[in-house]
Amino acid sequence: MSSSAVPSPVPPGDARGKRRLALVGGSLGNLVEWYDWFVYASFAIYFADSFFPGDNPTTQLMNTAGIFAVGFLMRPVGGWILGRAADRHGRKSALTLTVAMMSGAALLIAVAPTYGQAGYAGALVLLLARLLQGMSIGGEYAASATYLTEASARNRRGLGSSFQYVSMTCGQLLGLGILITLQHTLTNTQLKDWGWRVPFVFGALFAVVVFWLRRRLQETDAFREESSTAEAHDDSARGTLKALWQYRRQAGLVMALTLGGTVAYYTYTTYLTKYLVGSAGMAKNTATLVSFTALALFAVLQPFAGMLSDRIGRRPLLITFAVGCTVGTYPIMTALGSASSYWSALGLSLLALVIVTGYTSINAAVKAELFPTRVRALGVALPYAVANALFGGTAEYVALWFKDAGHEKMFFWYVSGCALVSLVTYVLMPDTRHAALSRAEADADGAGGRGEDHPGAGRADEHGQPAAGARDAAR
């Protein structure tokens, strides 16, 4: 191996500073991305009738939820295109591109004409913007998950990757905070007429700032190391579907472990406010405040759970989440449906989100630790995006469909069933905490005599071939 293949050592102080900058840059960009993504769901109760005529509020929400779900269909496309770009051209370039796309989409929604102004042309603009957002988010998740995991110290990957959901949740909190502010400064009529456009204008402006910030980020050592070696060996398959096919078992694991987590997350975040308003009969302002408070505390929990996984492993947290969600969804959602006060709704929401933390705090690290550097971003992006398109993006629509059909509680069993599938996956899969993400880490394992204890450093897969990290190290 040439000397250029391995990044030059940096002083410990500089390394810590670099990691802090990467954490801040990756997290802030992720925050704005998910602010733009979630603000659509947060403000849907105000703009649904602006694009879809009719007298049935549930039908109007189903139409807007349908467009929300369609955005998820573009996530596999974005995951493929931007995941490939991240593996071939760098995590930094992919992160910069995703936030630029999100800014343009937010601006489109901000200026979209209503049904009264242009008929269904406004809904078409809304649809196109959501498709663009879906493509952007499809690449954003993998690029940020990979970047935050690779940029973290090996014994703090759980902590580092936990900031993905901290920033995702803070993005939603920012949207909810703006919603609460507008609810207290504008009348309900003003919110429905034009106030709902305000957060999308802010989203476009926020994204411009983050675009500048992300251009200042440094590439991760793992990618620089891989890129140097790829240039020497003409690795044209890097970041391609052909390369990903070699890790199809890992890709299947990503889909299965995502299934329960994504359905539970969207149930207790984007759908929660609508559920409290439509089923529990809670005032919109109160329901929004419940969601805001619960999500704020949820964000605080993520780093603590991430640190715990760095000490005891990833599987115990994942299994705890899946058991809690499988057993607890029906009673929690049933109780929320009859919650009559802010405090009772908040307590139940927090209980649900504490359970979900077992998945959200570490899922980014687990997925990144399953793949080698040359296909890591694509390996995380594509199967995760497919699982989200099929289950996460449709969760709200499925919930509203059951409600409209008069069988709302069937949705609770649906969520529990998805969590059960993931539970089986968590029980059977290996713990990824000690996986080597680069050749330097694999070499350190070998020098310390610990290589075969690490899933990513020397263990063979079911075909008798070296595990992902070892194949990457041996290239």
Task: Kindly describe this structure.
The chain has 475 residues and is mainly α. Helix content is 77%, strand content 0%. The chain contains 22 helices and no strands. It has helices at 12-51, 57-73, 75-89, 91-111, 115-118, 121-151, 157-185, 188-193, 198-214, 221-233, 241-245, 248-268, 272-278, 284-312, 315-337, 342-360, 363-368, 376-392, 395-404, 410-428, 439-448, 468-474. Helix 4 runs antiparallel to helix 6 (121-151). It is globular. The termini are close together.
Summarize the structure.
The chain is built from 22 helices and no strands. The chain is an all-alpha fold and 475 residues long.
Tags for this entry?
475 residues, mainly alpha, disordered N terminus, disordered C terminus
Q: Helix/strand-derived class? A: mainly alpha
Helix share bin: over 70%
Q: What is the number of strand segments?
A: 0
What is the string of SSEs from the N terminus onward?
Answer: HHHHHHHHHHHHHHHHHHHHHH
Head-to-tail CA distance between termini: 10 Å
**How would a crystallographer describe the biggest sheet?**
none
The stretches of 5 or more residues where confidence is low (pLDDT under 50) are 1-11, 450-475
Quaternary organisation of the protein chains: single chain
Question: In angstroms, what is the radius of gyration?
Answer: 22 Å
Mean pLDDT: 83
Strand proportion:
under 5%
How many helices? The count is 22
